[in-house]
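Researcher: I'd like a candidate sequence for this fold, 194 residues long. If you have to choose between options at a position, lean toward the conservative one.
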């Protein structure tokens, strides 16, 4: 039985809890303070508003503890805004983005809201390397990965845009797997949590 934490500051927290409840091999825990990271095998950083989540990570003293959690080899899964927060560098409209302090957990550059505004949200199906085909993906004000280092393995693309990647214990995606009934991505993440 693995225990997966969900960062409970803002965003799609309840949707991730609902998804985790469907798995018999997992317990879940809500993370608001540094001590909440103790005893976890993995942490989900959910989608939401990356500026607000970034500010609350700092206010709650979680910035360094999350980085240490990652350095210890524990799994971290960032979805949508969680991808933005896990990145080394964020940009917005071709400028460096100063409104988010990224955690720098994965060596890539992410374009916030790269696919457009709320009105540009869309659904599609993806082939995700190492996971499967025909995976439903819901993109809401979604970022995309602009560039990444050799330490990062791209897992899925839409046209020329990388939308899912992994580097060791860090898994990130531009979309919202928690808004679908397909559990293949969360199973993959949990399998890689130690």
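Model: Candidate sequence:
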């Amino acid at each position: 039985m693995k225990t997966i934490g969900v960062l409970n500051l803002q965003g799609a927290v309840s949707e991730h809890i609902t998804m985790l409840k469907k798995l018999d091999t997992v317990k879940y825990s809500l993370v608001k303070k540094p001590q909440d990271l103790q005893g976890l095998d993995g942490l989900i950083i959910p989608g939401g508003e990356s500026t607000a989540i970034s500010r609350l990570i700092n206010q709650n003293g979680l910035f360094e503890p999350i980085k240490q959690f990652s350095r210890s080899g524990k799994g971290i899964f960032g979805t949508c805004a969680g991808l933005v927060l896990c990145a080394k560098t964020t940009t917005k409209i071709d400028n460096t983005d100063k409104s988010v302090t990224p955690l720098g957990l994965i060596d890539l550059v992410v374009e916030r809201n790269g696919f457009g505004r709320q009105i540009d949200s869309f659904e599609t199906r993806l082939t995700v390397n190492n996971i499967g085909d025909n995976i439903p993906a819901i993109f809401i004000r979604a970022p995309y990965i602009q560039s990444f280092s050799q330490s990062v393995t791209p897992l899925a693309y839409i046209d020329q845009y990388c939308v899912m990647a992994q580097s060791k214990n860090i898994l990130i995606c531009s979309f919202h797997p928690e808004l679908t009934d397909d559990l293949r991505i969360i199973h993959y993440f949990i399998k890689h949590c130690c």
